[in-house]
Design a protein that fits this description.
Elements: E1 4-11, H1 18-34, E2 39-42, H2 71-83, E3 86-96, E4 99-107, E5 113-118, E6 124-125, E7 128-129, E8 143-145, E9 150-153, H3 162-170, E10 175-179, E11 183-184, H4 191-212, E12 215-219, E13 222-225, E14 234-237, E15 241-243, E16 249-252, E17 259-266, H5 268-276
Parallel strand pairs: 1-2, 2-3, 9-10, 10-12
Antiparallel strand pairs: 1-17, 3-4, 4-5, 6-7, 8-9, 11-14, 12-15, 13-14, 15-16
């Protein structure tokens, strides 16, 4: 019997108004559910602009404590239960004074809070000054058993690491969701280099899907966001997508527009593909991978 599940991705732009962003996301989640989406994922830090372009201690005021009793989680849990959907939402978590995480929460279709994943890999590059804000995750790679599928989550910078995707798949993930905030500086004038960067981001995740015989769903923000206090800003390239078990794109958003992607995936194919192509697990030479625990093989 085929197990068909409808994935929903919310690609949108954000303003400085946190509540307005939240309400927009709620509206788009409701639209996605109306279109048949059963598992719906937001982009990275969907409530705010991507504030990591600068270092500003006042931005820590945007963070919130996250558990099943927090107001945001209670509201989202009620929404998930009402719509009978699984929600994957990206939030700025305050764990304690001076200790913050880039965190994703998973809520089941009955409204139950299933837990959270904290971003493991934290970048510190021009325009992406995340080490100032986020402590690396300490919960490990996780899989959440939801009503519709067993799902894993990697957050933005995590998605570049084949080790992270492999470990998530090894824990049983049928779909890996990747909430993202990535784009390019508008002072970059070379279209070929912009396209090359975008394709690199996309191809590496398609490779995760093929290498692990699981679905990968990446959801990005879209539009231009000026750096707080001025500066170059980032033009987010959108292009949210879903890749199938062979790594092929089965649905992709535009580079310019807010979009709601809804796409059916057949989870029954995972076992068929893994039985036919046994490289994801059976043929791995785990006795030869010791150097992966080192930073570099000198």
């Amino acid at each position: 019997m085929n197990r068909i599940v409808n994935i929903g991705l919310i690609q949108m732009s954000c303003t400085e108004d946190k509540q307005a962003n939240f309400e927009k996301a709620i509206s788009k989640i409701e639209q996605a559910a109306d279109q048949g989406a059963q598992i719906i994922c937001t982009q990275e830090l969907f409530q705010t602009p991507y504030f990591c372009q600068v270092m500003d201690y006042k931005i820590f005021d945007l963070a919130e404590e996250i558990d099943e009793k927090s107001p945001t989680i209670k509201e989202l849990s009620e929404l998930a239960a009402k719509l009978e959907i699984v929600l994957i939402v990206s939030l700025f978590e305050k764990r304690a004074a001076g200790l913050y995480h880039n965190t994703v929460v998973v809520i089941n279709a009955d409204g139950n809070y299933l837990g959270k994943y904290r971003k493991m890999h934290i970048p510190q590059d021009p325009g992406y000054l995340e080490k100032y804000y986020f402590t690396p995750g300490d919960l490990g790679y996780q899989v959440f058993k939801t009503k519709f599928a067993d799902i894993g989550v990697l957050i933005c910078w995590d998605q570049w690491y084949p080790e992270a995707a492999r470990l998530t798949a090894m824990k049983g993930a049928e779909i890996i969701f990747c909430p993202t905030a990535i784009g390019y500086s508008p002072i970059e004038k070379n279209p070929a280099e912009i396209q090359e960067s975008h394709e690199s981001w996309q191809i590496v995740q398609q490779g995760h899907a093929a290498a692990n015989a699981c679905y990968v769903a990446a959801v990005n923000r879209v539009g231009f966001e000026e750096a707080p206090g001025g500066g170059e800003g980032i033009q987010f390239w959108g292009k949210s997508f879903i890749a199938n078990l062979s790594g092929q794109l089965i649905l992709e958003a535009s580079m310019e527009n807010e979009e709601i992607l809804v796409c059916p995936v057949n989870l029954s194919m995972i076992e068929k593909i893994r039985n036919g192509w046994s490289f994801p697990f059976r043929d791995r030479r785990v006795d030869s991978y010791q150097d992966l625990t080192q930073l570099y093989s000198d």
